[in-house]
Amino acid sequence: ALPYCMNRFGNDEAEIILYGDIVQKRPMDYATGKPSEGLFIVLSEFLEDLKKIEDVSKITIRIHSAGGNAYDAITLHNRLKELPAEITAIVDGVAMSGGSLIMCAAKKVKVNPASLIMIHKCWSFVWDAMNADELRKMAESNDAVDRAQAAIYHAKTGMSEADLLALMGNETYMTGREAMDK
């Protein structure tokens, strides 16, 4: 598989390959103390690279991502959405979770019949002892993230927030054809 990268073609076109997990910073290999090898879409690297192509008129994004950090995926979506370029996303494999949010930044989306799209509500990992007030606060934060994600899906599909939140709550998997029908 190809890693995350951006390539410029002439003055007017660029291709972004988004293969990997969406992360705020590259994970560390605890055994070696060095950055983990693997396919990662690192927010800071993406934003720095985006500066090199933000003036092109046409961008193709090739996606194969099971998602990752929701906050970073929302940021990537928003930065892509504000570009003046005509953006086409091609789902080479999967656009799941945060990958599906990034996909929605494109004006045109192409999926193969065997591509997979998955949407779900955000998750939180709890590694601490927490009281009910702290847990409610975390749940309220998750609800806000879910509403932000639903707003992205609504802008792309026109579906209602209630319908989208129901699909997200059910962790909905769709083939390329099923996603296009929605």
Textual characterization of the structure:
With 182 residues, this protein is an alpha/beta fold. Helix content is 37%, strand content 31%. It has six helices and ten strands; from the N terminus they run βββββαβαβαββααβα. The chain has helices at residues 43-50, 70-81, 98-103, 132-157, 161-169, 176-181, and strands at 5-9, 13-23, 28-29, 34-35, 40-42, 58-68, 86-96, 108-111, 116-119, 172-175. The strands form two sheets. Strands 1, 2, 5, 6, 7, 8, 9 and 10 form an eight-stranded mixed β-sheet that branches. It has a two-stranded antiparallel ribbon with strand order 3-4. Helix 4 (132-157) packs across helix 5. The mean pLDDT is 94.
Key words describing this protein structure:
182 residues; two-stranded antiparallel ribbon; 37% helix; alpha/beta; 8-stranded mixed sheet; 31% strand
